[in-house]
Amino acid sequence: MSLFRVLLSIIFPPLSVVDKGCGSFLIVTILTAFGWVPGVIAALVILNKNN
C-alpha cells in the first residue's frame, strides 16, 4: 500500500479502490455516502488485503 493510495483513500475513498473491482468500488461508495469515516475505513481495509 503506497503513501499515495493512503492519502487518496483519506481524501476520496472510492477513487482509491477503483482498480480493485466493481464490488469494492460499490461498497466503498455506499459507505462513503452514509458517512465519510466508514468509507475511509473500508477503503483502507480493502487496500490492505493481500490478493
Question: How would you describe this structure to a colleague?
Answer:
The protein is 76% helix and 0% strand. The two termini are 12 Å apart. The protein is an all-alpha fold. The longest helix has 13 residues, at 22-34. The chain has four helices and no strands. α1 packs antiparallel against α4 and α3 runs antiparallel to α4. The mean pLDDT is 91.
Mean pLDDT: 91
Structural class: mainly alpha
Tally the beta strands.
0
Approximately what portion of the residues adopt beta-strand conformation? under 5%
Flag low-confidence runs. none
Major β-sheet annotation: none
Give the SSE map.
Blueprint: H1 3-11, H2 13-16, H3 22-34, H4 36-48
Helix pairs in contact: 1-4, 3-4
Question: Which key features would you list for this structure?
Answer:
51 residues, mainly alpha
Give a quick precis of the structure:
With 51 residues, the chain is mostly helical. 76% of the residues lie in helices and 0% in strands. It starts with a helix and ends with a helix.
